[in-house]
Specification:
about 450 residues; mainly alpha; Growth Hormone, Chain: A; about 80% helix
């Protein structure tokens, strides 16, 4: 593609390998998520509808709740040993979990043990995904420069979206053709192994190696420039506010309406999986669009416009849901939630570079993990009760504060970027004079 014409052959190869690896990783991660309506019946005990909703929320959140520990673990590995090592280890972890789930007996066969084992596998998959997506984004951020940097990093998110789409495609194929569901997990395990092997071709990023060398040289002084987390509290809060948006958008688009489709329109688990597969086409298209737009338009402007339109849509959302009378109406609402989602794409390079090099992986992955863990728990469990109490207007209790926080975070980074540009212009003449004098 012409947008990557400025990249060297080595840079293109690294970006390609990371995109392929992210695709494999998220195929495995999302396979259970999108087959949950079927697999929860196999691995969890049968209960009343309310308890079933809580168990489904538990199964969904188990992937994310321990992610902060994965962020600290793989963040340390990424910032101390290297970005390359991290993305290889995490892909292998995902493969092992898929192999276990592909062979795991059901609840009917071994009882509650099946529930605990599948939950632990989901936890470890969540842990490994932490080192994956942030590792790939940090790696590409450190080997590229704007404007090609923005779509290059954004296509990491596209690769994860494509992985989710393919997971849905395989899930739909398996369920509609009455194939054994275990085949899907064997496919996932196989492609994860391929991804791990492919990533051994990667080299460590020069920016990380330079920072590491500088850190070792000045370590006795304990004041190396990349040794301290310089971002102020306001910048950290802005980063968190932006990253809180996507978990909410994803859960509402792909999970919230499953009960409605099942109870109001008599959708079977297979029908819901196929419905979400069609929806994932919208998901993928929007991510590709944002990635391509970021080469021409400033990323922060893109997400500010998107979030502003999302705020308007949210005000009408409860009414739209109440008048929805066909599955197509539900699909339209879900598609709009994705098209106007509160995602950080394509601003990740700007956000990641707000942290010093040797704290970048840990800080970015920890915030990524914490926001998703908190938001998925708050959204999945909270909406069970909020919609019981307030109907569809209970959505506002969570959606409005998160959207306003997202817009505030974008505004903060806009101010930060403007200040950096002014400082850069002011220091440039002095730098040129210094070079001439030298």
């Amino acid at each position: 593609m012409s947008i990557f014409s400025s990249l060297s052959r080595q840079q293109k190869e690294a970006v390609g390998l990371l995109q392929i690896g992210t695709f494999f990783e998220y195929f495995d991660l999302m396979l259970y998520v999108h087959m949950a309506v079927l697999l929860n019946e196999l691995f969890f005990p049968k209960t009343d509808p309310h308890t079933a909703s809580l168990l489904t929320a538990f199964a969904f959140c188990s992937t994310y709740v321990l992610r902060p520990f994965g962020a600290m673990l793989f963040g340390w590995v990424g910032d101390n040993i290297g970005r390359k090592t991290t993305v290889i280890i995490t892909t292998m972890m995902m493969s092992v979990c898929c192999i276990i789930m592909a062979n795991l007996p059901t609840y009917a066969q071994i009882g509650i043990t099946a529930t605990w084992i599948v939950t632990l596998c989901r936890v470890f998959q969540g842990l490994s995904s932490m080192g994956e997506v942030i590792g790939a984004q940090v790696y590409v951020t450190e080997i590229t420069e704007p404007p090609a940097q923005y779509p290059a990093v954004a296509f990491i998110a596209v690769a994860s979206s494509l992985g989710a789409v393919c997971a849905l495609a395989v899930s739909s194929l398996v369920t509609h053709c009455n194939f054994n569901w275990r085949i899907a997990f064997w496919i996932g395990a196989g492609i994860a192994v391929v991804g791990s092997i492919a990533r051994t071709r990667l080299r460590e990023t020069p920016e990380f190696l330079k920072a590491k060398t500088h850190h070792k040289k000045y370590k006795p002084l304990n004041n190396a420039p990349n040794n301290k987390l310089k971002s102020n509290r306001k910048t950290l809060m802005a980063f968190i506010s932006i990253y809180c948006g996507w978990p909410l958008s994803f859960y509402l688009a792909f999970m919230y309406f499953n009960t409605t489709l099942s109870q109001s329109f008599n959708y079977s688990p297979e029908d819901i999986i196929l419905h979400n597969f069609y929806l994932s086409g919208v998901f993928l298209t929007t991510f590709v669009s944002w990635a391509l737009l970021s080469y021409k338009y400033y990323p922060l402007t893109i997400i500010k416009v998107r979030a502003s339109l999302s705020l308007v849509f949210i005000l009408f959302l409860p009414w739209l849901i109440s008048v929805a009378s066909t599955p197509f109406h539900i699909f339209f609402i879900q598609a709009m939630l994705l098209a106007l989602s509160l995602a950080a794409v394509p601003t990740e390079p700007i956000l990641i570079r707000s942290f010093p090099v040797l704290k970048r992986f840990t800080a970015a992955s920890l915030i990524y993990a914490l926001t998703r863990a908190v938001m998925y728990i708050l959204t999945s469990f909270g909406l069970v009760y909020l919609t019981d109490w307030f109907g569809h207007y209970g959505l506002w209790v969570i959606m409005l504060p998160i959207t306003f926080g997202f817009l505030w975070g974008v505004r903060h980074f806009e101010k930060l970027e403007n200040k950096n540009k002014i400082k850069s212009r002011q220091s440039q003449p002095y730098s040129m004079n210094f070079k001439i004098a030298g």
